[in-house]
Amino acid sequence: MSDPTSDDAPPLSFEAVYDRLKKLAHRQLGRGARGTLDTTALVHELYLRMGDADRRFERSAQFYFYAARAMRHLLINRARDRKRLKAGGDWVRVTLGDAAEAALAVESADKAFAIEEALAQMEASEPRAARVFELRYFAGLGADEIAELVGVTRRTIDRDWRYARAFLLAAIQ
Amino acid sequence: MNVPPAPAGGNASASGPEMGSPSDLRECFEAVLRCDPDARAAWLDAHCTNAGRRRTIERMLEADARYAGQTIDRSFEILLDRIGDDSGDDPPIGTRIGPFVLLERLGEGGSSIVFRAQRTQDDVVQQVALKVLRHHLYTHDERRRFRDERRALGQLRHAGIARLIEGGITDAGTPYIALELVQGETLMAHAHRHCLDIGGRLRLFVDVCRAVEAAHRALIVHRDLKPSNVLVGADGEVKLLDFGIAKLLHRENGDEATHTHQRAMTPAYAAPEQLRGGQITTATDVYALGILLCELVTGQRRSVGDTHTPSSQIGDTTAPGLLPAPPARMRRLLRGDLDNIVLQATAEEPERRYASAGALADDIERHLAHAPVAAHPPSRWYRARKFVARHQGGVLTTAAFVAAILAALGVAVWQAHVARAEARRAGAMRDFMVSSFREAEPGSPRAGPPRITEVVEAAAARARAEATMHPGVRTELLGELGAVLRAQGRLDAARDILQWNYEQSQRDLGANDRLTLAAGLELLRALALTNDYDDRVRGFADDLLARLPPGETGLRSETLVMSSAIAARERQFERAAREGQEAVALARSLGDSQLLSNALNAYGQALFLDGDAQAAATASEESLALTQARVGTRHVSVSTAHVNLSRIYRRAGNLPAAERHIQAALDIDDAVLPPDDWRRALHLNAKVMILRQQREFALALDALAESLRINRLALGDEHPYVANDLLNIGTLRLRLGDFQGAMAPLRESLDVLEAAKDPNHIQVGIARGAYGEALAGVGDAESAESEMHRALATLEAGPKPDPHEQALIWECLARLRLDRREPATALPAIAEIDRLLAGMAKPKPYWDGRTAALRAHALILQDKSPAAFELLERAAATLRASADKDVELDIEIQLLRARAAQLGGEHEAAPGFTAQALDAIAALRHPPVRLSAMAHALRATQRD
């Protein structure tokens, strides 16, 4: 098989992904996303841009892990900025996940912090479940895909998911 | 991801672990879930003593319930629990969903679970595949939409599609869909198990496409085509599952404001527009089919972001069991056609893909039948070239022009919803050209408005210098710019650019890259425009042809057209016709009108030169019709087509048709071309030929004068076309008897030709021969003889000696000697003609008569009138029987008969012949001078 990454493409790094994502998000907001930032669409856009003909991801898993984490960072950084600056534009509502599973709307910076804290807690005791949550809500992946990326059965993912969702929602009430 | 160690803090229970009680939060949660809802409180009382923990669990249960549905079927909830159970093997038989009873779980998808279910109705047991959806439909709107969609899908009946039998929503709001239960294995499994070869796999694939096509006709898009959705039954019949279900399962939110992204598909098979949440069309399904095809023939799953062609997917390390054939053979089989088909089906832009699943199936079938396929990379510069051609010699004026050319380039970078790699590249090209044009706008400091060719040349120079340009982009750009210059007549500039481009492309992209070969073709076109074909050009064309891969039908057709034209110029008519024919066949298979009319022109030209005027006319008529259909009747291409046809008809002897066409051509020229356009001269030349045949020598000279004027202006005094005009002028004057007037043009023609062409070029020989005739006409017999001998030497020494032209010169010599009353020297000349004729494959039919006349003349001079008479009788009979009415020959024969009769003492017969001859002469326009003189001389002697 030929080398999947071309010679002049730098190896995929979290920084690279995060950087691109930030720019993309800015652009989407600049275009007037009518008040919402759709994380799933963003990650897909990012995937298409970063995974163009010149480079090929050796494993999509790597990309999605990074992208989900990057999106999570993006969210919390925006919340922090908002808190710090206190003013400077409306908080843009962020929707996580998609409508098949009713989306999680993050309407305020405070909610973003709450989510982050809950996720951090979950990571301490159930890291895989946290990962599933991240991939589902920040990268918008489906259960089958997550199962493939993470390397467990679909049923395991379902269980993780159910737990993560309940935990998180309970935590942010 | 490993199972985490014991929790370090958080909600850990203060009281230590009790025997038999779950210690961590998750286990607790899941244990509670397994209880009946009524029993949960009790369980918590028993096992969860920590108040904080209990509160958490209760909140979690609440959240969980909220997402599982507000009012939920208890049995369904149990169903979910059982499903969530890793160890669960027991099917939840017995649950009722609508009128169906669940028998066995078949599988699950992202948003639904599939069961085998059955219903009994009027003693009839029907088994179905029942899809139970996970989420619930709450609002009236949602339910209505579900029902409407379901009804539409229910109408879809096709053997290849699993039928939607029924659907509904339970009281609890659980939607379900009952589908035809299909027994079979998935497409890939089937192909693998039956060890299907590529042909077998492709035929299966065609079946799949036809089924998809049927649904598309009913305006239903699948949206989630993938191998697991295609089953193959025991009878080998294909069945598609889940048609349109994807849409049904996921609520469509038309409201832009809360545009939520639907993930109703698998990313690996999702078309770019699907991933972006753009418009879903039938082209979306075509994309998925393309991916499916790739997997089917390579036996490998395609991963997201994969853009390589099927053939490149096969590496030597690929597991052999997956492939239908060994890797090397597979690569060979896939390269070309199948690669191109897959690439077209999976093109980024929906418009570039096959228009329908049926079109895709057609192409596969063509491939299976070893016919050329339609898939080929598109030429978006086609329109640009057309645009520029319409504005030939044009001057840039306004920004509107710039906008128009951008539109003509077909680069739709302002389609907001797509941001594709291709558009980025095209955008780069567009930006480049915009800045080139902007520099040329009148506002910038310039002497006057720039010419289009100047802008193009400047752009080309910039493109050459720009180091950061993507090589593929640059090759294409320079190729097209060079073509524009060539079409505008800037041949030197075009050649330079195209030569550089070709060499550079070889370095950057490789010698056998498609773009390199296309660049080579453009270069070939420019080189071939020079009048001198040397072996280099022939060799280059051969080389390109050899390097073209078999799948490149369009490129091959175009290259064959050039090769045919080169062969025709080199007088290799058989090859020219053969290649022209092949080019036509290839162009026809692609259905490309422009390609086809070019190929027909080349083919027609080759046939024409080979002497088959009728076939040439047929080909050229078709080409004309295609051209007119494409560009309308007022266009220079149509004019050129008319001219070709007029030449052909003239050669076929159909003068009225020839006249009709040339007139049409000249009318168009007047309407569309500037007065000094070099094409007018070319077209006038065809008119000259017709006039000459009609003996309208004076009118022909007028036309030639105009043609010469234009040619001198457009091409310069040293150009072979100018020499050609001069040669024609000279020979016409010879025909008119104006020998003195013929000298200067013939002399000049000879000079130009000797300088411009190979000294032994056939035209040089012809010109010299004519010059010799002029010399003889003005009385310089000695110089005449010497020039004619030189002409013969030239013709003999040429690379392709033409015996016909040589014979003409010998005929001339023979006649001169006969007129000087030297039969002794005339006879060897006639013998030379015989020798040459014997060596000719297809001598012109009039030669028999002409040599007979010459010989008879010689016999007369030798006083052998009976023999002469006999010869002339036979010649006259042959002439009468033949289709061609060579009037001059007829007259000559009459006159010679008169002379023979006189000589033989038959003084009564002689005047008859003479009178006949004189009548015929009088009836001719511009009577032939020599024969006229002969006739009058005869009559004078008869009076004595």
SSE pattern of chain A = HEHHEEHHHH
Q: How many β-strands of chain A, per DSSP?
A: 3
Shape of chain B: elongated
- Tell me, briefly, the overall form of chain A: globular
Strand order in the largest sheet of chain B: 1-2-3-4-6-5
Q: Within the largest sheet of chain A, what's the order of strands?
A: 1-2-3
Write the layout of secondary structure elements.
The complex is a heterodimer of chains A (about 170) and B (about 950).
Chain A: H1 14-30, E1 36-38, H2 39-50, H3 60-85, E2 93-96, E3 104-106, H4 109-125, H5 127-137, H6 143-150, H7 154-172
Parallel strand pairs in A: 1-2
Antiparallel strand pairs in A: 2-3
Helix pairs in contact in A: 1-2, 1-3, 2-3, 3-4, 3-5, 4-5, 4-7, 5-7, 6-7
Chain B: H1 25-34, H2 37-47, H3 51-68, H4 74-84, E1 96-97, E2 100-108, E3 112-121, E4 124-133, H5 140-154, E5 164-169, E6 175-180, E7 185-186, H6 187-193, H7 198-217, E8 230-232, E9 238-240, H8 245-249, H9 272-275, H10 282-298, H11 310-313, H12 327-334, H13 337-345, H14 357-368, H15 382-390, H16 399-408, H17 421-440, H18 452-465, H19 471-487, H20 491-509, H21 514-528, H22 535-547, H23 553-569, H24 573-590, H25 593-610, H26 613-631, H27 636-652, H28 655-672, H29 678-693, H30 697-715, H31 720-735, H32 739-756, H33 762-777, H34 781-797, H35 803-819, H36 823-839, H37 846-861, H38 865-881, H39 887-903, H40 909-923, H41 929-943
Antiparallel strand pairs in B: 1-2, 2-3, 3-4, 4-6, 5-6, 7-8, 8-9
Helix pairs in contact in B: 1-3, 7-10, 7-14, 10-13, 13-14, 15-16, 17-18, 18-19, 19-20, 19-21, 20-21, 21-22, 21-23, 22-23, 23-24, 23-25, 24-25, 25-26, 26-27, 27-28, 27-29, 28-29, 29-30, 30-31, 31-32, 31-33, 32-33, 33-34, 33-35, 34-35, 35-36, 35-37, 36-37, 37-38, 37-39, 38-39, 39-40, 39-41, 40-41
